[in-house]
């Protein structure tokens, strides 16, 4: 997991891909969704800079926030696994599992939120930005929409009972909204 080796952000791309391919539980889908969101935000910032630049600062902020969630997701999932591996007769296990589950739900829910915002920002650039950069903006929308959908799926996977249902519903709505931007651009 990220905490044992340092930040995923400090790895070369080759090493990052090797770490993601390793037989370890994290980084996994959440880290990939966070990094994809960061990449989509980077494309958004770049496309904005070739236009009026109005969306560049917001794109940069989203990129930094999403990138940090790659490590946060690995940590949250590692904490959840440690909690569920506690002995069933451990009196602190139910509380530890519940708290860890909140983190395992909260991080991908936040990724979905950021990815949906990136998709919206990039869709605006695809429509109204520099036409020479439309392809990059559309790529950002598609990548962000995929990341939002992935993050929503992870929220679904981590919800148990009533815990996290509001996050689940919100993540699904965000993923749908991000996907709608792709559909709208396809029909332009």
UniProtKB/TrEMBL annotation:
Pfam families with a match to the protein in the record: FTCD_C (PF04961)
Query: Cyclodeaminase/cyclohydrolase domain: which residues?
Result: 12-160
TM ranges: none
Q: What is this protein called?
A: Cyclodeaminase/cyclohydrolase family protein
């Amino acid at each position: 997991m990220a905490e044992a080796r340092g930040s995923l952000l400090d790895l070369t791309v080759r090493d990052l891909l090797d770490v993601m391919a390793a037989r370890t539980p994290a980084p996994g889908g959440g880290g990939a969704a966070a990094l994809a969101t960061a990449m989509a935000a980077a494309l958004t910032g770049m496309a904005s800079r070739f236009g009026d630049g109005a969306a560049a600062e917001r794109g940069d902020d989203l990129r930094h926030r999403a990138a940090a969630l790659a490590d946060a997701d690995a940590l949250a999932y590692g904490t959840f696994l440690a909690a569920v591996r506690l002995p069933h007769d451990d009196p602190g296990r139910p509380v530890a599992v519940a708290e860890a589950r909140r983190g395992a739900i909260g991080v991908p829910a936040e990724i979905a939120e950021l990815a949906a915002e990136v998709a919206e920002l990039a869709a605006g650039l695809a429509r109204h930005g520099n036409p020479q950069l439309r392809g990059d903006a559309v790529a950002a929308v598609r990548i962000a929409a995929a990341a939002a959908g992935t993050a929503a799926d992870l929220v679904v996977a981590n919800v148990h009972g009533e815990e996290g249902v509001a996050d689940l519903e919100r993540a699904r709505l965000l993923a749908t909204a991000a996907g709608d931007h792709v559909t709208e651009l396809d029909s332009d």
